[in-house]
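--- STAGE predict ---
source: upstream dedup step, 1 unique chain passed
mode: sequence only
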Amino acid sequence: MAVRLRRRCADEEIVAEVMQETYLAVWRAAGAFVGTAAGGTAVGWLWTIAARRLVDAFRRRAHHAEPPPAAAPQPMAPAAEEEALAATVGGDVGDALRRLAPELRQVLQAMVLDGLSVRETAVLLGLPEGTVKTRARRARIAMREALA
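--- STAGE serialize ---
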């Protein structure tokens, strides 16, 4: 999870803070996780908490200083979360998702898989809201075409 957070935020201090807040939130709300009976996975649940904590950290920092620098996309080995996602989203949908351009896949992943709003995705990725909307639309069109 830390690797995935670092891809979205280059500030190690924020990443460490978000990781600590995430684990604390998980500890406090562990009884609320209903598991696969509700169709969710533990990895997805953890990432949703972490992603929202990251957005909150960006908002807190924005009130006191300039926004943190965004992490430049770097080729890395897939994170455990991405390997779990690949195992979960398989077949034609998984293939279509993997063929998307990285910037489109990022937006689709944040909005659809992580359940973030346009505004939260914009803050998380350091993009204007209009850009997020455009990329989401392009990603949906590309997915429809690939699955047709």
